[in-house]
UniProtKB/TrEMBL annotation:
Keywords: c-di-GMP, Coiled coil, Membrane, Transmembrane, Transmembrane helix
Molecular function GO terms recorded: cyclic-guanylate-specific phosphodiesterase activity
Domain called EAL: residue spans: 24-277
Organism: Marinospirillum celere
Protein name in UniProt: cyclic-guanylate-specific phosphodiesterase
Superkingdom of the source species: Bacteria
Keyword Flavoprotein among record annotations: no
Statement: the UniProt record of this protein carries the keyword Membrane: yes
Length: 280
């Protein structure tokens, strides 16, 4: 009996694996096709400058509308792209769309910096600086209007190569941010070795109601750490007004989150940008 159960369990387990790897394979093929057909979209989520009250930056976020399955979340297709080597192509596409958008906003007279998420493989490729430089030249986009977001794990994969790449990007005038700060496992000492301009506090550290809570203490400490190292600090995942008030009190430089705006197609943000330009 025990044997039979074990056998069954094994069968079920195998069936699960077979199913999920088939699904993975299918999804991989679909993603490949979507990339070739240019079916990856980019939405933008603005960041609010807490000192001036102006929207000054927007993060580019990849979106994939699958013809049958609808929206596939980035938490599914980004890791898939990373596992299958498609992230290079995807990253390139997002970078291009984001820079085109930045150039078009620049030409329209909006002073909006665009931030793009960069995967480890893009840094490792050794072509990032060249790729970005070419885009800036081609689009006549000032480098100060481009920001690249890197995560701790991306930086740690080959810290030496990453540092070199980052120095070159920075020399070109591009700003560099560390994304999801605080969610990695490496020691803090790495922070002073990388040439970084911006620190993005992961939303898991955001306080619920007031600055007196544990999360408030952590947020305060991370802001001090970032400022101490000469970085500007962004809080991500800000969902309510109270958090905004507290972040401002704590001297945080920028806020990004649903309370300000969800990630949206670029056209929908233009109204907001135009409105604030009128007020200037
Ligand atoms: P991320 O770079 O940390 O981006 C912020 C994520 O938080 C986005 O999720 C955004 O929609 C979400 N978010 C923003 N405000 C709020 C809020 O107030 N509450 C909550 N609950 N969430 C909020 P999204 O678009 O699903 O992207 C998830 C992750 O996928 C990104 O995290 C980034 O790591 C990755 N990703 C997205 N696009 C790209 C890309 O083009 N290239 C690479 N390499 N990674 C990307
Ligand atoms: Mg990001
Ligand atoms: Mg993040
Ligand atoms: Mg994230």
């Amino acid at each position: 009996r025990a044997k039979a159960t074990g056998g069954n369990r094994l069968q079920v387990y195998n069936e699960d694996i077979r199913q999920s790897s088939l699904e993975q394979l299918r999804l991989e093929q679909d993603l490949r096709r979507a990339l070739d057909a240019g079916q990856i979209q980019v939405h933008f989520q603005p960041k609010l400058d807490l000192h001036t009250g102006l929207l000054s930056c927007a993060e580019a976020l990849a979106r994939w509308e699958h013809p049958e399955e609808g929206q596939i979340p980035p938490s599914v297709f980004i890791p898939l792209a990373e596992r299958t080597g498609l992230i290079g192509q995807l990253g390139k596409l997002v970078l291009r769309i984001a820079c085109q958008q930045a150039a078009s906003w620049y030409q329209a007279g909006y002073n909006i910096q665009v931030a793009v998420n960069i995967a480890a493989q893009q840094v490792e490729s050794g072509h990032l600086v060249e790729e970005v430089s070419q885009l800036l030249d081609e689009l006549a986009l000032p480098a100060r209007l481009l920001q690249l977001e890197l995560t701790e794990s991306t930086l740690m994969e080959d810290a030496e190569a990453a540092t070199l790449e980052m120095q070159n990007l920075r020399a070109r005038g591009i700003s560099l941010a560390i994304d999801d700060f605080g969610t990695g496992y490496s020691s803090l000492s790495y922070l002073q070795h990388f040439p970084l301009d911006i620190l993005k506090i992961d939303r898991s550290f955001l306080m619920s109601e007031n600055a007196q809570t544990t999360e408030g203490t952590l947020t305060r400490a991370i802001i001090a750490l970032g400022h101490g190292l000469g970085m500007q600090v962004v809080a991500e995942g800000v969902e309510d007004e109270d958090q905004l008030v507290v972040l401002k009190e704590l001297g945080c430089d920028y806020a990004q989150g649903f309370v300000i705006s969800r990630p949206q197609p670029a056209e929908l943000l233009e109204g907001l940008f135009a409105e604030q330009k009128k007020k200037l």
